[in-house]
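Problem 12. The chain below contains 194 residues. Write out its predicted structure in token notation.
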Amino acid sequence: MSMVLAITGGAVVAVGFIARKSWLALHRMAGITPGTLRYVEQESLPYLPPSNLGNAQQDNPSALSYLHYLPDSLIAQLHRIDAKATICFEGIVAQQSTLTHPTRPISEDEFVAHKMTHERLPQMLIDYEQVMRFGRRDTPFTQNANSTPEQQATFLLAEFLDQLEARLDMLRETTQRQHLQALKGMARYAKGRK
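Solution.
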């Protein structure tokens, strides 16, 4: 009886070991690390200089020709997004420039916000400019998505900017909470070492 239990126990351990090794090998083949939300290496993130919108506007006014077509409310919102993105991503930029090995992986929220800010937003602004350039410019800004293509483009861009601004606010709050927790931990550690 004990021999049957020993063989059964050994088989269970062997199957578990092989299953775990196979699972890890499958993840290695796919290029992901189990247990982390790291979709992109820190080093491969593009450098984000502070205040992209303001610098580009000062350096080369024709580089941001889409601003000509935007309503004032969306320009103000773009400036707010620019300021929030600078605050949210300055930690990533500082970590990239000072550390060869990052202390923490980039989170999924940071990755999505970075992608929306640096890839999707410029593309949407270019598409918006194209729609406005080929359409009439005398249509007022309304929130009705069933009107002219120009009004639809303005509505869609405003909706995207609202989503992006909300995501950056959420990311800023999450980062603030993480840093506060780290500060509390260090304070507890220092208190315990008296």
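Discussion. The radius of gyration is 25 Å. Students who got a different answer should revisit the alignment rule from Section 12.3.
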